[in-house]
């Protein structure tokens, strides 16, 4: 702060928000941009378990928190900002996306990951195979 003796500390959550703001600007400030948005889909339970007498199959509702989401030109844009999250956590989230996204096929989802380094970008791209995606570094969007 100007003319202040008070020291401001910046934590990981603040950095994550600033990075998400960079992505918002990169996409030309979408009007329907929503942050920390929850998507959900019915995911069929294991094929081993079925209720045949009533003609029903078990399903479970799966939820996932997305860093940001917006729609443009008929596409659902899902945004993930990779700041300092462990790669194993990113991989778990990608697996959740692989379960949920088939329920959004009518909205043509595109998953974007924004990360800091080329090595993290390569690892994310490898794990995202099978999902419509794009991985960019923050250096690439400046």
Using brief descriptors, characterize the structure shown.
Trna Endonuclease, Chain: A, domain 1; 5-stranded mixed sheet; 142 residues; two-stranded antiparallel ribbon; globular; 3 helices; alpha/beta; 27% helix
Describe this structure in words.
The chain is an alpha/beta fold and 142 residues long. The protein has one domain (12-137): 3-Layer(aba) Sandwich (Trna Endonuclease, Chain: A, domain 1), CATH 3.40.1350. 27% of the residues lie in helices and 34% in strands. The chain contains 3 helices and 7 strands. Residues 47-53 have low confidence and may be disordered.
Briefly summarize what is shown.
This protein is of the alpha/beta class. It contains three helices and seven strands, in the order αβββββαβαβ. The longest helix has 15 residues, at 12-26.
The averaged pLDDT comes out at 88
Number of domains: 1
- Give me the side-by-side strand order of the main sheet: 1-4-5-6-7
Bin the helical content.
25-40%
CATH hierarchy, class = Alpha Beta
Beta-strand percentage?
A: 25-35%
**SSE order, one letter for each helix or strand:** HEEEEEHEHE
Outline, from the CA principal axes?
globular
Please identify, by name, the CATH architecture. 3-Layer(aba) Sandwich
Q: What is the number of strand segments?
A: 7
Low-pLDDT regions = 47-53
Summed up, the helix count is: 3
Q: Round the Cα radius of gyration to an integer and report it.
A: 18 Å
